[in-house]
Design brief:
The chain has about 140 residues and is of the alpha/beta class. Helices cover about 30% and strands about 20% of the residues. The longest helix has 14 residues, at about 65-80.
Length: about 140
């Protein structure tokens, strides 16, 4: 199998813009990132600005195939009308103008996300089990 070419920059046509402090100014913001593409929290106030972020610092170290860029970009477009691509400094500066910024925690973005937002724990993939099921392990 031939590995597809990888790129640190998103392909054209994803509708990404540079981080914009004016867009976030005085707003409650919910950040969507490539590892939080599930449904938005039901408890978000109606006037919350949902911003999708692609962090160039991460993608320069870990480039993606065009197919992956487009898959994530498509889902992010479903969730967020505003989608930024930029480095950590630019995104952080733009978010400083917001009233409040929240997101879902993510190890891929650990060096940056906690500086920008109040992070909620990622949802568990499996429900907690009340008691061990011995027969399962046998």
């Amino acid at each position: 199998m031939i590995e597809p070419p990888l790129g640190a920059e998103p392909p054209a046509g994803l509708g990404l813009t540079a981080p914009d402090a004016v867009a976030a100014s005085g707003r409650d913001v919910w950040l969507v990132h490539p590892w939080s593409l599930g449904a938005l929290p039901a408890r978000l106030p109606a006037d919350t600005l949902v911003i999708g972020v692609f962090l160039s610092d991460f993608h320069h170290a870990w480039p993606w195939s065009e197919r992956r860029w487009r898959f994530v970009g498509s889902r992010m477009a479903d969730l967020a009308d505003v989608r930024w691509h930029g480095d950590a400094a630019a995104i952080g500066t733009a978010l400083k103008t917001a009233r409040r910024v929240r997101s879902i925690d993510e190890p891929h973005l650990a060096p940056w996300l906690a500086r920008w937002a109040e992070c909620e724990a990622a949802p568990a993939l499996f429900p907690a089990v009340d008691r061990r099921c011995d027969s399962f392990s046998q």
